[in-house]
């Protein structure tokens, strides 16, 4: 029986584990893929207070090590469902078995949003990618497009411009959504061009690989053609963790409803990180949630 079981090993979940372990609680993190969550896709984080230049991958590795050194366990398992037992403890079933805990922290994070275009799924790994850091090198010297106008798209375009011949950013509105510092860097790169008011209408496929795009132009019946070998999608995220919605209520978009104290309607269940409904989703707010949720779970156990 764990004191605290944390579902999700991103920055929020690993921070919760660090705090729970330091509070003397027996805790484990269930992670179905790679510890670190979305931040591992950020080549450079420049807005984490006190650490001006940070690779997302390094941050995740160091946080994992720190949590484990304090006594947290990391279990590479996919949490499939959770139920409340008659005594108020929890049983979490995973793809590898089941675990019992007196308190749960849901830190399930978010997943990439897709465009929903015909043929999109089949081209993932054959021209379409959600991760510039992981897949950018496959497109060295070639022309690529990045869809999105947020911080992820801006970071992806900057990273790809160091490897690719030409990077075209496709932004559906007439302006970016991301930070001004990143916008200025993008606009100063000679091999990045930005097309505002553009969405992808069609994917061109040849022999199983992406060859280009047909674009819609806002306010115009005309279409544009854009031959590219790579398409990086950075169009935001959708919450993960629907399977736990019987424990924690979700809002219309699927994010867990919980206030800054990270508590939910189920005693002993807390939520942390990007899966929680909130206004600002940043590394800083994720780790803050992890600390808050662990402190709240610790207090709840001690009461
Ligand atoms: P985001 O901020 O939600 O931006 C998504 C972008 O995709 C927006 O430009 C949006 O357009 C566009 N979009 C959405 N659906 C689309 C569609 N179907 N077709 C075309 N465009 C579409 O997502 P994000 O950039 O992944 O960032 C997520 C969160 O992580 C944000 O809070 C962000 O600040 C944070 N983040 C921070 C950093 C950092 O601080 N260094 C780095 C990465 C991410 P509209 O603007 O028209 O909605």
Structural class, from secondary structure content? Answer: alpha/beta
Helix content: 10-25%
Mean pLDDT across the residues is: 96
Strand content: 25-35%
Explain what this protein looks like in three dimensions.
The protein is α/β, with parallel strands linked by helices and 303 residues long. Helix content is 24%, strand content 29%. It has helices at 11-22, 56-69, 120-123, 132-135, 151-161, 180-187, 283-302, and strands at residues 2-7, 27-30, 73-75, 79-84, 90-94, 97-106, 110-112, 128-129, 143-147, 166-171, 192-196, 198-206, 209-217, 223-227, 230-233, 237-239, 269-271. Helix 1 packs parallel to helix 7 (283-302). The longest helix has 20 residues, at 283-302. The radius of gyration is 21 Å and the shape is elongated. The mean pLDDT is 96. NADP nicotinamide-adenine-dinucleotide phosphate (NAP) binds next to helix 5. NADP nicotinamide-adenine-dinucleotide phosphate (NAP) is lined by residues 42, 45, 47, 115, 147-153, 155, 172-173, 177, 199, 234-237, 281-282.
Summarize the structure.
With 303 residues, this protein is an alpha/beta fold. The chain is built from seven helices and 17 strands.
């Amino acid at each position: 029986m764990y004191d605290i079981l944390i579902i999700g090993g991103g920055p929020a979940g690993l921070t919760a584990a660090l705090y729970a372990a330091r509070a003397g609680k027996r805790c484990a993190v269930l992670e179905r893929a790679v510890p670190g969550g979305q931040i591992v896709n950020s080549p450079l984080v420049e807005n984490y207070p006190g650490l001006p230049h940070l690779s997302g991958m390094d941050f995740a590795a160091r946080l994992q090590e720190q949590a484990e050194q304090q006594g947290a366990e990391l279990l590479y398992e996919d949490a499939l469902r959770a139920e409340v037992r008659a005594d108020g403890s929890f049983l979490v079933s995973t793809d590898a078995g089941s675990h019992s805990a007196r308190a749960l922290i849901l830190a399930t994070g978010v997943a990439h949003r897709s465009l929903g275009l015909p043929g999109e799924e089949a081209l993932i790994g054959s021209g379409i990618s959600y991760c510039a850091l992981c897949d950018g090198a496959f497109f060295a010297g070639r022309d690529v497009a990045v869809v999105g106008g947020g911080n992820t798209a801006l970071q992806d375009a900057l990273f790809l411009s160091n490897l690719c011949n030409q990077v075209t950013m496709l932004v559906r509105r007439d302006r970016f959504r991301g930070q001004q510092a990143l916008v200025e860097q993008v606009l100063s790169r000679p091999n990045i061009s930005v097309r505002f008011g553009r969405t992808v209408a069609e994917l061109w496929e040849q022999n199983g690989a992406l060859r280009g795009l047909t674009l819609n132009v806002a306010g115009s019946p005309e279409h544009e053609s854009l031959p590219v070998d790579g398409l990086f999608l950075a169009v935001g995220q959708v919450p993960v963790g629907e399977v736990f919605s019987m424990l924690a209520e979700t809002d219309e978009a699927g994010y867990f409803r919980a206030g800054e104290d990270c508590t939910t309607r189920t005693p002993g269940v807390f939520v942390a990180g990007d899966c929680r409904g909130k206004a600002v989703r940043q590394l800083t707010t994720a780790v803050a949630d992890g600390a808050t949720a662990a402190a709240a779970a610790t207090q709840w156990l001690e009461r």
